[in-house]
C-alpha cells in the first residue's frame, strides 16, 4: 500500500497519468481573449481607483486645482486624447462585458453563435463609448 502522504502529482506520475494541459497549448479564441480582457480591465480599474485614492491623500488642493495644473502643461491634444482613451477603455469594456455576464447568469445568449455575436458587440460598443468619452 502507498503512503497516505503521497501528493497528487506524485501519484499521477507513478500511475503514468498525463498532467492537465496548460492554456499555452490552445489556439487563442475570442472567448478566451474576452475573458482575459475582462479580468485585466477589472484589475486595471481597481489599480486606477487605488492610485487616485492614495494620490488624493498626498496632493494638496481640490480636483479643479490639480486639473488646472495639468492644463498648464499645454500637452498636445493627441496625447490628451490617448490618455483619456486609456483611462476610459477599461471602464467601458468592463461595464459592457459585465452586462453580458449578467445576461449569461439569466440563461440568455449561451449558444456559440450568440456568445460570439455578443462578444463582437461588446468590443464594438466599448470602442464607441471609449471614443465618445475620450472626445469630451
TrEMBL record:
It holds the Pfam family Sdh_cyt. The keyword RNA-binding does not apply. GO terms for biological process: mitochondrial electron transport, succinate to ubiquinone; tricarboxylic acid cycle. Residues 1-12 have a biased composition (Basic and acidic residues). PROSITE patterns: SDH_CYT_2. Its cofactor is heme. Heme binds at residue 94. The heme is bound between the two transmembrane subunits. Residues 1-20 are annotated as: Disordered. Keywords: Heme, Iron, Membrane, Metal-binding, Transmembrane, Transmembrane helix. Coiled coil: none annotated. It is found in: Membrane. One of its GO terms (molecular function) is metal ion binding. Pathway: Carbohydrate metabolism; tricarboxylic acid cycle. It is a multi-pass membrane protein. The keyword Nucleotidyltransferase does not apply. The chain crosses the membrane at residues 43-63, 75-96, 117-135. GO terms for cellular component: membrane; mitochondrion. This is Succinate dehydrogenase cytochrome b560 subunit, mitochondrial. It comes from Zootermopsis nevadensis.
